Structures are given as structure tokens and as C-alpha cells.
Amino acid sequence: MLELDPRRLIQTHFGCRPDDLARSVVLSTHWPLESFAKLWDDEPEEHNGWFAAVTGRYRGRELTVVLTHNGACRVGQAMLTLITGGAERFLLIGRSSGLYDEMRLGDVAVVRTSICGEGYSRYHGADHFLDDPFGWRVTIDESLVLQLEAGLKERTGEFDVGVHSVRTFSADSMLAQDRELSEYVRIKGGHIIDGETSAAFATARIHQVLAASLQCVIALPLADKPLFGAFGGEDSRRLEKTHLKMSALALDAAAVLDAYEPD
To answer: Is this model's pTM higher than 0.85 or not?
Structure first.
């Protein structure tokens, strides 16, 4: 990676100084910063540069939330910049397609292993850009996954959604998440398809920081409930409820990540 001034990078990307940001960061692909507004212990500090972000306290722990929007390159670029400024722990929250019969729309997945199907990792996740990272797997600490899963099950019990510990295949194109790709990923041992987790996990591996990923299941392509499909009834209600709760679930999980002590 280029040798760049961390202060200039942070100022350009977030409009602030490195010490204005927390060591633990939530990377939100779809949930706007406004959805976190009522959850903070007190008034958070806003940051605006190439990315919009807020830093505040949640249950006594200082956390930063960044709205990355979707895409492996945007998540990766935000992570790399934040790492130069001293960030050490990252929680990605995103949306995914579920591939197994026991999954329902609105379920939440804790990713334990990422499988690379995106291009960002060629440049910032592999040891050299000529290495082909397609299919490359990164697995995070099992004890961290168990802690995150336990916390989610406690919080989601009140609104009837499943919590799954999964392997995800990360694909650059949302429109590629069709039945053919879904069947391929399932054969390879993947449980869901998302767009960003492998970029986050690869970056964390190379730079020796912690990363985790929570995914809201918004499609079931093998059950004829594809991305951008029109869902009604219980499917729609469950999905909407999880989407509204996701910001709170993310801050809970980020607090767990911030307190986590690796073995």
C-alpha cells in the first residue's frame, strides 16, 4: 500500500483527525447514520468527508459508525483508511442471499468464514496482486463468533428471526446472485452470498486487525425468492422488522467486539 500521511487520509475521507475516531468501527452498507441516532448514550460527533460517519458512546463504549454503501472496494477503502488512523476492530453489517432451506427472509447471519469472489482482495488482501484470490477463505476466531451469535439470539428472540453461523461467498455483482451462482456456492460449502465480507476479512488478515460480519438475509434465490423480488405476508413483515432492528443489533455486536479479548 502507498505510504501516505494518516492525518491527511483521515481528513480527506472523514473530515476529522485520527483521534476523533474510535478504535472499533461499524461499517454499514445500507443502514443510514440516522437509523443509529436514538441509540447513543449521548449526542454523537458527526464526520463528513468522502464518507459520512458518527462517533459516540454506546453502553459506555466509544464506537464509530461509517456509511460505506455497498461494494467491496468501498468497504475496503474505508477500512484501509481507518487502519492508518489507528482503528483496530471492524464490524461489517450488510445484506445477503440465503442458500439453505432452514433460512428465512429477515434472518441474521454471523459470518465465520469468507470465500473470496470479488476483485478488491487481489490488490489489498493477497500477498501480491498477481496472486489469484478467487476462492480464498478467511476464518475468524470461533470464540468471537460464538459470543456474537449468543448476543444476537438473546436480542432477536423477541421478534422471531433465526440466527445462523455461516460461510459466505462475496461476489462483486448483486445481479450475479442468481440461481446458477447460488447452486455453485452451495456446492462449494457456502451458506449465503454477500458483496463485501471477504474484502473486510482479507484486509483484517493482512493488517492484523479484528473483523466480523453480520448479514441480514433479504433473498432466497433457491426458494424462488430472488433479490429485488416482491414479497408479501409474513416474509415481508419479518424482513422489515429485522431491517428496522439491524442498527441496534450492530451496536450491540460492536460493543461485544470492542470488549473481546483474543486468546
So the answer is: yes
